[in-house]
Design a protein that fits this description.
The protein has 8 helices and 3 strands; from the N terminus they run H-E-H-E-E-H-H-H-H-H-H. It has about 180 residues and is mainly α. Helix 1 runs parallel beside helix 4, helix 4 crosses helix 5 and helix 5 crosses helix 7.
Amino acid sequence: MPVSCKQLKDIMAKVAPGLPYVVQETEQDFLSFLRGESASAPNMSTTWHSEDCSFYRFEIDPLLLTVAPNVESVAMVASHEYGHYMLKACNKYGPDEEIRADLFGYAHMLKVGYDPRNAVEMWGVITRWMSERGLTHNPSEHPSGEARTKTMLEWIEQNRVAIETQFGRGVNQHL
């Protein structure tokens, strides 16, 4: 079921209160073209900064709202982008920066009231969506969905007590 704009507004109010965001198509394919790379999947979300590295806005592709299995998945992606903002990682690219933002995002999700266990499948959703369209990711910029799922599951296990204290044991097919 798609995530509504009202749900997105609620997510952004929790994840990044007061920071501007816009829902519009991202320009990943165009950026890939400019870098001389093959076309890749569009970013589901991105954080834009001005030349001096100050925050400009969050950009959320409407695609994210249609493919995300639940609000927690959108909160995960938004928390990841908020991680880039908080970690001052503007204009830095690479798998290490992406994993840093992922880990920050998982902790931030928990802090603002989203159960990260319910978002695990989002990495698989993105991977399948790309595969179905013959798209590839650039491993020099982003880790694979499989690697991100593994990292997320490890983080969840390391933080199991805090998660269960807040949300209960619950049953998740991925754990």
